[in-house]
Design a protein that fits this description.
The structure is a single chain. By secondary structure, the chain is α/β, with parallel strands linked by helices. It has 12 helices and 11 strands. The protein has helices at about 5-10, 40-45, 60-75, 85-95, 110-125, 165-180, 230-245, 250-280, 300-305, 325-335, 355-360, 380-390; strands at about 80-85, 105, 130, 150-155, 185-190, 205-210, 225-230, 285-290, 315-320, 350-355, 370-375.
Length: about 400
């Protein structure tokens, strides 16, 4: 074989190597499925579960490893795995820890796709999914069975906003584990983005985040993360991650990394704006209840006050029962600055009505529930928009 290569081969096997020493603030974007090894010995010596080297794009690149490391730091964890969405992250935890014959407990105010996943596990996989009062606290002890392997929590519920007593729940679960039961607590910590609630400090074993929200901040990324402090737990979750074939794009990973430096500032701005709008809504006769965890009359407020340091931009209201669903739908349709859509954490304010009676087995009340995400607009403009929409109630 001669040293001279054909043009076609040269296009694939270039000898040019860029000079080292380049420095910049953004994390480099590594697009890769195939990862190259120096030799066969290097290939055979690498373990994809140990994140000290690279094996295949699905198991991580410098870009994804960087995001995982930074998310673990934010939450106070030691290990992190990325997933294509928040729901994918939830499913990854379920498939890592549950098998046929096991039992999982979920709060009655759980994120509705997580509830639907529970139905699927029960229907097709022989796993019992049961639902509990989100304010049960230490009363969870009466629901834990010998085959209960996982207790999901959500702080607060992202629609009805009850704030659970996480330390009371984790204390019971740790006692069960100390007695020999294989059981763990997982939390959907998306509402606080890991900024306003330090889940591991309160005894949680697994933190799930939907990075779609505050971490990205641009309403343009779908991604989730699972974070732990425990090496044995992350190995179990890694096996589910591998078997499910979950991967995330390098470009989406970069977008989340780009959002992290401003996340705390944006979260605080969302929080301040939401408090102003929610306080104004409490004065309105059209509204019978404002479900904002920072307000004393929100269920579980005492837990929020003890355990949280902020609230973000998401809260709900319950309209006076004299207004029908058609009227509150007309109110939502009449908003101009608020757009109709799911999710939160982006710069644009959102509003969406829920048929909460169909979502919750223990919901009390008859008024129509509407959820607001307060974006980064001026609160006074948002208040004016809501005020003009109230006129559509009739």
């Amino acid at each position: 074989m001669t040293d001279r290569k054909s043009l076609q081969t040269s296009l694939i096997h270039s000898e040019y190597v860029a000079p080292s020493g380049f420095g910049a603030f953004p994390t480099a974007i590594h697009h890769a499925s195939t990862v190259l090894f120096k030799d066969v010995a290097a290939m055979r010596s690498r373990n994809w579960q140990e994140k000290n080297a690279y094996t295949y794009g699905l198991h991580g690149t410098p870009t994804t490893f960087t995001l995982e490391g930074r998310l673990a730091e934010i939450e106070g964890g030691n290990h992190c795995l990325l997933a294509p969405s928040g729901l994918a992250a939830i499913a990854m935890v379920d498939f890592a820890l549950l098998k046929t014959g096991d039992d999982v407990l979920l709060p009655d105010n759980v994120y509705n796709p997580n509830r639907e996943l529970g139905r699927w596990l029960t229907q097709d996989y022989g796993i019992t999914a049961r639902y509990y009062d989100p304010l049960i606290g230490s009363g969870i002890a009466g629901l834990i069975q010998p085959n209960t392997r996982l207790v999901w929590t959500e702080a607060p519920g992202s629609v009805s906003m009850e704030v659970p007593d996480i330390p009371a729940i984790t204390k019971i679960v740790r006692e069960k584990r100390a007695a020999g039961q294989d059981i763990h607590v997982a939390i959907d910590n998306t509402w606080s983005a890991g900024l306003a609630f330090r889940a591991f400090d309160h005894g949680v074993d697994i933190v799930m985040q939907a990075l779609t929200k505050y971490q990205s901040g641009g309403s343009d990324v779908l991604m989730g993360a699972v974070i732990t402090q425990d090496k044995e737990l992350i190995h179990r979750i890694e096996m589910a991650h591998m078997r499910l074939g979950f991967g995330v794009s390098a470009d989406d990973t970069y977008l989340v990394l780009r959002g992290l430096p401003t996340m705390k500032l944006r979260f605080e701005a969302h929080d301040a704006g939401a408090c102003k709008v929610a306080a104004w809504l409490k004065t309105r006769p059209e509204i019978s209840r404002v479900l904002h965890p920072a307000f004393e009359d929100c269920p579980g407020h005492i837990n929020w006050k003890r355990d949280f340091t902020g609230a973000g931009g998401l809260f709900s209201v319950v309209f006076n029962e004299r207004y029908s669903e058609a009227q509150t739908d007309r109110f939502v349709d009449s908003l101009k600055l608020f757009k109709i859509g799911f999710s939160w954490g982006g710069a644009n304010s959102l509003c969406i009505p829920y048929r909460i009676q169909n979502m919750r087995s223990g919901w009390q009340g008859t008024g129509q529930l509407v959820r607001f995400n307060i974006g980064l607009e001026e609160p006074c403009d948002l208040i004016a928009d809501i005020e003009q929409a109230f006129r559509a109630l009739g």
